[in-house]
Amino acid sequence: MPINLIVTHPGGAHKDDFLACCLLAHLHGASIERREPTENDLRNPSICVVDIGGSHDAQLNNFDHHQFPRDAPPQCALSLVLLSLGVYEDALAFCAWLRPAEWLDTLGPNETSKRMGIPRTALSDLNSPIDVSLLKRFANHTDLKPNSVLYQVMCMVGEDILSYIHSLRTRLNFLKQHCQWWSIEMPEPTQPSIRVLFLEHHDVIALDPSFGIHAFIAQEQQQENVHALIYPDRRGDGYGLTTYEDCPRLNFSLIESENDVRFAHKRGFVAKVESTEPVRLKTLITLSTVQ
Fold first, then answer.
1. Distance between CA atoms of residues 118 and 139, nearest Å
2. What pLDDT digit, counting tens, does each position of 106-123 carry?
3. Domain that holds residue 74
4. How far apart are CA 201 and CA 214, in angstroms?
5. 246 inside domain
6. How far, CA to CA in Å, does 199 sit from each of 90, 244, 280?
7. If 0-12 CB within 10 Å is exposed, 13-18 middle and 19+ buried, where does residue 41 land?
8. In this structure, is residue 168 part of a structural domain?
9. Cα 213 from Cα 153, distance rounded (Å)
10. Is residue 132 part of a domain?
11. pLDDT confidence tier of residue 170, bands split at 50, 70 and 90
């Protein structure tokens, strides 16, 4: 059934109801009304009722969380929309901002800052003027039509969120099939080996070769085992060599004088090389090892 209308609460706007409406606006192109819902709204599946109404029923497109018990998982209206789209778990895994957004809306700033391990004041310090402006403009409207500038920006936001989630899931599936784990032995037997994640050239990843690599490492639970990454250089046929999380065991400035090294950062965390042969790439890693 097509969605003809999106209804959310009037008054102050928050990130969760704003982003939920962004997703729904992108998907359905329906007008947004900021008002109290009627019983007919709640019973009509062609009307999305977001963050208001006291009902969570995805079949009827009702997405409110305020009626949940105190000990319920801290899910907000945005969470419920993502659940209905079947992408909630991926969104939690890929979008670091989602969990704090849920906590802020359901638990408040004090509990959120505790869970994040930051001072309460840091939440305000990190407020973006982009957030402030968009939420203020959204709150000032009672009716948003698809031809309004704000509505079109909201559609862009919704599209980018879903595009990121879908494209990262596709990339992770690709990396699962194409990444190689190298264990490079050191010349000195007492030194532990260097573990490298290697990704070879492929047309599928040519535009953004490094996209998803860190998420893939997290998915594979290899954060504690990886020292370096080698992936295609999108500016040429060679490869980029980078340390993983600034691993102190490697310094790529040590190989800046090698003939096949096009660039090595003075701080040692990245190098660009013309070599494509695995044997040579492994040698460059060995030469970059801090003794």
1. 28
2. 999 999 999 999 999 999
3. 5-146
4. 18
5. yes
6. 23, 14, 15
7. buried
8. no
9. 29
10. yes
11. very high
Buried b (16+ CB within 10 A) or exposed e, 48-72: bbbbbbeebbeebbbbbbeeeeeee
> How many structural domains comprise the chain?
2
- The torsion angle over the Cα atoms of residues 196, 165, 238 and 185, rounded to 10 degrees, is 0
Q: Decide if pLDDT at 189 tops 90.
A: no
Please state the rounded mean pLDDT for residues 16-27: 98
Are 191 and 95 in the same domain? no
Tell me if 21 is assigned to some domain: yes
pLDDT at 291: 79
Angle between helices 129-139 and 149-178 (to 10 degrees): 130
Instruction: Tell me the pLDDT band of 275, cut-offs 50, 70 and 90.
Output: very high
Q: Are 97 and 187 in a shared domain?
A: no
Transcribe 16-80 into DSSP letters: HHHHHHHHHHHHH--EEEESPPPHHHHH-TTEEEES-SS-EEGGGTEE--TTS-TTS----HHHH
Give the span between the Cα atoms of 260 and 238, in whole angstroms.
9
Whether residues 92 and 194 share a domain: the answer is: no
**Based on the domain organization, do 132 and 191 belong to the same domain?**
no
CA–CA separation, 49 and 5 (whole Å):
9
Amino acid residing at 189:
P
Query: Are the beta carbons of 52 and 38 closer than 8 angstroms?
Result: no
CA dist 61 and 64 (Å) reads 10
What pLDDT score was predicted for residue 236? 82
The continuous run of DSSP H or E covering 283 comes out as: helix 278-287
Tell me the two tokens of residue 180: 């190689």
